[in-house]
Amino acid sequence: HFDPKPSIIVFPSSTAQVQAIVQLANQFNVAITPSGGRTGLSAGAVAANGEIVVSFDKMNQILEFYPADRMVRI
């Protein structure tokens, strides 16, 4: 069992915002925990030590789909 204790939870909506978050975390030597589906099945993404949780909830649009390459740009 892990008790979540993040420093902050952020909800970026652009790649530029994610870049700024990473730069800030690097500047202050703070770890980042990405948050996607939050199933919590393995507790592998629990921010228990003051990390910055980066939720990708707002980054949920498919911009391009390349069926021949089996690739999606989101």
Short key terms for the protein model shown above:
3-stranded parallel β-sheet, 74 residues, two-stranded antiparallel ribbon, alpha/beta, 5 strands
Summarize the entry for a quick read.
This protein is α/β, with parallel strands linked by helices and about 70 residues long. The chain is about 20% helix and about 25% strand.
Helix and strand arrangement:
Layout: E1 8-10, H1 15-27, E2 32-35, E3 52-55, E4 64-66, E5 71-73
Parallel strand pairs: 1-3, 2-3
Antiparallel strand pairs: 4-5
Describe this structure in words.
The protein contains one helix and five strands. It has one helix spanning 15-27; strands spanning 8-10, 32-35, 52-55, 64-66, 71-73. Strands 1-3-2 form a three-stranded parallel beta sheet, with helices on one face. A two-stranded antiparallel ribbon has the order 4-5. Strand 4 and strand 5 (71-73) form a beta hairpin.
| Shape annotation | globular
How many helices? The count is: 1
Adjacency order of strands in the biggest sheet = 1-3-2
Outline the biggest β-sheet.
Answer: 3 strands, parallel
What is the helical fraction, as a range of percent?
Answer: 10-25%
Strand fraction equals 15-25%
Between the first and last Cα atoms, what is the distance in angstroms?
33 Å
Helices and strands, in order, run as EHEEEE
Overall average residue pLDDT: 85
Taking pLDDT < 50 over at least 5 consecutive residues as the criterion, the unreliable ranges are: none
Secondary structure category: alpha/beta
Quick one: how many beta strands? 5
